[in-house]
């Protein structure tokens, strides 16, 4: 076992502070990774604050972080796909049973035995009660859950692709050919800004719904064709019934009927945002116009690799604010206020100085 520096939260009300955790020795199928950057996802904040306690309670100490990029330092004897020095990524999952129909269909996030998520999941290796994430110097991961990172992209900007990237890429691809379709992205945060980039890259007419008018110019720069102030009922009404597809990335309770009202015939609204409280849905908002409401959870490993390769080919990365890990608590306060453009990426080198 290897001792590793990390930042952890001791309880739902504690700040993240310096800690020491144990990583397992590399088994024959493992890849040991020195972490270079880790993005801060709103799911990290929900988990640290135990906001999902009714569905996925948090076990403390909690080391969050599932947008990891780093360099391979060691591989097990049976590892075929990676060697020391390779640039790699790790996203939201580090294991699954690999045998169930969902794993065989490359959607390991829905593994029948339950996927092992990168943090706050029971640790099969018994190194700790739960898995510890990427706010740490290094991590040891089974080869099947390690991704190749395009070498032409800035690593700090690649890290958020491992969650925010795949979570928006996957539902956009699954919708079908969105070329020329009117696509709405609700909420311009970490997920939302990646949704804009992918929807644009696949040729959609992209409309951002945001409460924050200060983000309007950025939304247009990121590729949106239009920006709607979602707090302005008149502006909203002008677009009623006109969307083919809407991706809702909002992290808190909000009125989704207002967005169902924006959909045209057979339109679909896919939720990726994960508010802790249930959302009220009006049956009539779905019945009239034969609309559908669905959800989407990250993406499988194969699709995550496809997304990373696509980003490498099309030069797509996240817009990041790079911070040292010592500023993580301020970053959480700002994230809670939707004050980030558009993802914090922690420079893990800062952890070595502690
Ligand atoms: P984020 O950066 O905080 O972005 C969320 C955006 O939602 C904000 O920037 C804000 O956009 C909008 N928003 C926030 N509070 C709102 C409110 N009360 N009413 C209306 N709009 C509000 O968060 P993120 O990292 O993108 O994550 C978004 C959500 O997705 C979180 O719940 C996260 O846990 C979840 N998530 C789900 C998956 C999945 O697999 N499904 C994966 C990762 C994350 P404006 O300022 O533009 O209004
Ligand atoms: Zn995430």
Provide a concise account of the structure shown.
The protein is an alpha/beta fold and 354 residues long. It is built from twelve helices and 17 strands.
Bound molecules: NADP nicotinamide-adenine-dinucleotide phosphate, zinc ion
Low-confidence stretches: none
The percentage of residues in β strands lies in 25-35%
Helical stretch count? 12
CA-atom Rg in angstroms: 20 Å
Query: How many strands in all?
Result: 17
Secondary structure class reads: alpha/beta
User: How far apart are the first and last residues' alpha carbons, in Å?
Assistant: 21 Å
Tell me the major beta sheet.
7 strands, mixed
Q: Helices, strands, pairings?
A:
Elements: E1 2-9, E2 16-23, E3 30-40, H1 42-48, E4 68-75, E5 87-90, E6 93-95, H2 101-104, E7 116-117, E8 138-142, E9 147-148, H3 155-158, H4 164-175, E10 182-186, H5 190-201, E11 205-210, H6 216-222, E12 226-229, H7 233-237, E13 243-248, H8 257-260, E14 263-271, H9 283-287, E15 292-295, H10 301-314, E16 320-324, H11 328-336, E17 343-347, H12 349-352
Parallel strand pairs: 10-11, 10-13, 11-12, 13-14, 14-15, 16-17
Antiparallel strand pairs: 1-2, 3-4, 3-8, 3-17, 4-5, 5-9, 6-7
The site of zinc ion has 5 residues, from loops.
